[in-house]
What we know:
The structure holds two protein chains of two kinds.
Chain A: H1 15-95, H2 98-102, H3 106-114, E1 121-128, E2 133-137, H4 151-159, E3 161-163, E4 176-184, E5 187-195, H5 197-205, E6 214-218, E7 249-255, E8 267-274, E9 281-287, H6 288-291, H7 293-382, H8 388-419, E10 426-429, H9 431-448, E11 451-457, E12 464-467, H10 468-484, E13 492-501, E14 506-513, H11 520-523, H12 543-553, E15 557-563, E16 567-575, H13 579-582, H14 589-595
Parallel strand pairs in A: 11-13
Antiparallel strand pairs in A: 1-2, 1-5, 3-4, 4-5, 6-9, 7-8, 8-9, 10-12, 13-14, 14-16, 15-16
Helix pairs in contact in A: 1-7, 7-8, 9-10, 10-12
Chain B: E1 5-9, H1 13-25, E2 29-33, H2 36-45, E3 50-53, H3 62-71, E4 77-82, H4 87-95, E5 100-103, H5 108-139, H6 142-149
Parallel strand pairs in B: 1-2, 1-3, 3-4, 4-5
Amino acid sequence: xxxxxxxxxxxxxxxxxxxNRMEHYKxxxxxxxxxxxxxxxxxxxxVGWGMRTQYHRFAEDRVMAAFxxxxxxxxxxxxxxxxxxxxxxxxxxxxxxxxxLVRPGQLRLLFDRFNQEQWTLTxxxxxxxxxxxxxxxxPYDLLxxxxxxxxxxxxxxxxxxxxxDMFMGFRREPHFIIAVRxxxxxxxxxxxxxxxxxxxxxxxxxxxxxxxxxxxxxxKESVYQTTPRYSGRIMETASMxxxxxxxxxxxxxxxxxxxxxxxxxxxxxxxTAWLETPQWMLVVRQDLDEAFGAQKQVDFAVLVFxxxxxxxxxxxxxxxxxxxxxxxxxxxxxxxxxxxxxIQTSKMASIGELSVGVAHEINNPLAxxxxxxxxxxxxxxxxxxxxxxxxxxxxxxxxxxxxxxQRCKHITHNLLRFSRRTQSVIEPIDINAFIxxxxxxxxxxxxxxxxxxxxxxxxDVPPIQSDLSQLQxxxxxxxxxxxxxxxxxxxxxxxxxxxxxxxxGNVEIVVSDTGCGIxxxxxxxxxxxxxxTKPMGxxxxxxxxxxxxxxxxxxxxxEVASVANQGSDFTIRLPLRSPEATNGYGPDEEALExxx
Amino acid sequence: MIGxxxxxxxxxxxxxxxxxRLLDARGYRATAVNSGAEAIRCLENEDFDVVVLDLxxxxxDGLTTLKEIxxxxxxxxxxxxxxxxSIDTALAAVKLGAxxxxxxxxxxxxxxxxxxxxWDKKDDLHKKDIQEKVQRVIESPKDALRVFAR
Lengths: 596, 150
């Protein structure tokens, strides 16, 4: 038996179709990803970057403000130092006269008293208007020194008070002095104090700002008045220019010659403020990296979090999109399968409708051919003299015409039966009643073949929900086959029985005949399409195949038991409710009208 | 029965003509018409034993023609002869009162066998009707005149 081609609905799509579909899904995937990026990741990044920028500015402002405050504070401390010590000296100069101060022990007393709370002065001296030391308390031998030409002497004599820059002087050590002018009957005199450099420097140099920060003082000539932490030494010229005296506090970012530990040049945050007296510039500076270190950490954390979030969104989106595409693919495949089945069903319905038309249109010409053949046969009977061979040949030809007419008839009849396969009309069926009707229809034909029908219909059989038209077709096929099975027999019987199998919930119909039976070797194939045990031209092999597919579709099963030369039993079991009934296939009004 | 009057109703002219010839050759008296309307007219004017009726015809189709035949209240039997071959239309025709059903193409012998059966049935019905009428006459003489007048 030739291998049956697969129904169209079950065929896999072509490679080109498959490739096109893959391309479509890839495009869909890319579109989803881009859409997600545009709708979620991009706004996230924009908002994140915006917030980060705002925070960056805020943090920078805060750091700058902190620096400003630092400078402010230190300036106040230093100015307070100068103010305090200057005030003390001024008080000393106004509350004592020259004579008092030069008395032995008096200057020492005042010196000790001055340093009592905190060691501030290195020495203290009284100098006359000619620059000569009148009295001196301190570690140096300066009594014989004359300061007439010293800059500080000229300045104090002129202005009344003078605070010098750091200078080496006779001591050969960096120091600075505070000098105030006193006045008595003899004329002006000067009280000069040397500020303890270490004590003063401690005010500035002991300020620690982080790891890279330094605080120092420079004068207008950019000479260090204190030793910076990293950048140079006291009395050296600083690499940075002091610039013009400016009011208030300035904070700026600038490149440094060398950063912390003298490494590569860095950018620093520098804050400067000028003292009023002396005119020294207080400098506070720190490497930018350290100053903004905490802010940079937060910045980094925010950026990492932002980008990790964006990446996470992207990854999740890709996974979700992939999953959704899988669902979409599955739905598309199901839809395509359904569509193919629908097309196949429509095709079959069209073929069915076509079959009906074709069958009918062919049957009519066949009927005419049959009548013409019969007329020829009748004429042949009436003809008197005719060549015997010719007559035999003519009769044979007419018989062959009849054989082929019958063959065409079987084909068209099976085509008509086939056309009924595509439609299902589910309705309540009284099985016994419908069997009786079909038997009544077939009884006369069977009787002419010497066959008797027996009905053994159980009254317990309940109505079933099924397709009446298709069940009629099945029964008709089985009865027709049963009649044909008696071809070489004079007598026979066909029994149709029904029963209700309550435990299974099935109705059973058995068609038994006393025909020629089916050989055991062929039993397994009787339901195969185009398989027939009838002689060539007598059967198309579709009848039982149609029965099988109808019964299966109606939710039942059909079996055969047969003994060669004794007969066959075809058993059909049907559920009380066809599966198509649960799918909502009800009676088709049009079909009912046509049937009526 | 030899001499039975058969009315052939089919829109295929050649078919009805051939069938008429075949039936006439076998002793029947066949009349061929090609539409349901013509068939009804013939039946109204003439007594036929059996009507051989095609189902699919233009205008009045076979089933409609069958219904009209039944309305005439005749004893004439109807054989459905059609190329459609569907079981449900066959059953519908039998339910409407057709005697039997044949599919085209059919053997002339098959047809004549059915015609005999149909004629027998018509004869039985006719005889039964006469018996009923006679019985009524016997039971009620007053009705006798009415029956014989009919």
